[in-house]
Structures are given as C-alpha cells and as structure tokens.
Amino acid sequence: QVQLVESGGGLVQAGGSLRLSCAASGRTFSSYAVGWFRQAPGKEREFVASTNWRGDKVYYADSVKGRFTISQTSAKNTVYLQMNNLKPDDTAVYYCAACSRDNVLSRENEYDYWGQGTQVTVSS
What's the rounded Cα separation, in Å, for the pair 7 and 119? Predict the structure, then answer.
C-alpha cells in the first residue's frame, strides 16, 4: 500500500498564494507519475497538474497554466503544488494522486493511489 497525505490548504484572499504538499509513505515507487486534481462544490473532479518521476515532464490544465507549479523533493517522496495569483474559481478540495508510471497523466482513472484531500478557499 501507498499512502498519500495532502497538506497546506487554507483560506486566502484573491491574488494570494498557497503551497500544497503531498507526502508519500509506505511502499513507494522507483518510477511514478503524480497528479493534482480538484473538486469544487457541485462539480466533478478535474485535472490540475501532473509530473513524472524525474520531474523533467510536467503538464498543466489551461485554467492554471502560468499560475501553478508542480515540483518535488530530491528524495522523490514529496510533491508540491505552488499556487500563485489565486482566484475564487480555484476554491476546491485538492487531491494528490499517484501511479507506477514514469509519465504525465491527466485522467482520473489512470491513477491508483489517492490522498484524502485538502481544502483551498479563495475569497473575492
């Protein structure tokens, strides 16, 4: 089993920044893909960003491109989502997901492991 735990969410004013963390524990992967998804109230879960194990490939949803940055520690056990210039539409529960593939993936069903989510609320 692999456990993913998100942290760093909170309340922030529009235009502010937050940094989300996704910490992996248990049996980790030597090669993997990591993705961030979010789910706003009354809406379906949507893709936000993804990176591969080496971190040399990244992919962002158009809605966050230029504002969000996905990265990871050198130990490859923690993935971050730096969120800048936040907007009220960014309000959602943010989830970290992973699978044992060295690629960038944007589909929810392609991931095997999921965290429990962290709430991000952006006020206008």
Answer: 9
Report the relative pairing of strands 118-123 and 10-13 from DSSP bridges: parallel
pLDDT in tens, 97-123: 999 888 888 999 999 999 999 999 999
Cα separation of 61 and 84, whole Å? 15
Cross-strand bridge partners of residue 121: 11
Distant-in-sequence, close-in-space partners of 40: CB < 8 Å, separation ≥ 6: 89, 91, 92
Placement of tokens 């937050």 in the chain: 18
Q: What are the distances in angstroms from CA 48 to CA 26, 61, 92, 95, 103?
A: 25, 5, 11, 9, 15
Say which residues have a Cβ less than 8 Å from residue 105's Cβ, sequence separation at least 6.
33, 35, 50, 99, 111
Q: Quick one: CA dihedral 68, 24, 54, 72, positive or negative?
A: positive
